[in-house]
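If your schedule permits, I should be very grateful for your opinion on a structural question. I have a record of one protein: its chain in single-letter code and its fold written as discrete structure tokens. Kindly check, if you would, that the fold set down in the tokens agrees with what the sequence suggests. I remain grateful for any guidance, and I place the record below:

***
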Amino acid sequence: MASDAHFLDHVLDQLGSLSGITHRRMFGEYALYHHGKVVAFICDNRLFLKPSAAGRACIGAVSEGFPYPGAKAHFVVDDLLDDRERLVAALLATSAELPEPKPKAKPKPGPKATAPAKVKSARPKAG
């Protein structure tokens, strides 16, 4: 079951005016970013926070789940949607612990365009 936009709006509303939050739709679900770092997923209308020691410290007792098939276990933080302060604190703590995103690879340049070679006239010189 895909997540709906209303649930995404609710999560974003709970995050309030926290700067640096963006999201991207992926396969009917959503990834949440904080300053370019993926910090959480919204899948099946549930909120999954990337696991981190700092996030665990903010949350306390955590329950874990898998946001999508083949994913590593994440913290299920649906209950934090009713506690804006703890939700923001857990997200910020997680973001601080995650590595910076790798810079996107620059596209490899194709073969250099060369100027056409000057062609000598095939006419013989008079003389």
